[in-house]
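Data card: per-record layout.
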Amino acid sequence: MNIYLVYEKYNKDFILFAKSLNCNEDKAFDLVQEAYVSALEREEIFDNMNEYQIKGWFFRTIKNKNIDNIRKQSKLTYLENDEIFEPCESFEESVVMKDLLEDLPEKNRKVLQLKYKMNLNSKEIGNILGISSSTVRSRLSASLNLLRNKI
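The structure for this 151-residue chain is written out next.
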């Protein structure tokens, strides 16, 4: 079975899977299309695959494309916006929170921002910052302890 037939047969499954990853129908369609373009660019790798292997390749590629998009968007947002948390309800809370965060070392502030603003896990944060996931967890714990002690 070739990729065209697998794509036609399982397109709705691919879209549902992509939608479950990011809860956005437009982004889901984009992810599936990106995966299909990747398949067309490497069509020869499917010559020795059966239908289920091709289907698995699509699911894995859609998941990886989603992760790539999250990382790319996170890097862009991280560079554009230096706020870590959503604005507080009152002006005073905002000022206090900003002061507390500014007192943290930059490496701790970055980890907090990527964790709580970008909703990334320790492995993804580690990839962005070029450190191990255990170092990310250690910095996150230390950052939260520093904040608790200052409050």
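Known properties of this structure: Confidence is low (pLDDT under 50) at residues 77-88. The helical segments are 3-22, 25-41, 51-80, 91-103, 106-117, 122-129, 133-150.

See the next section for split statistics.
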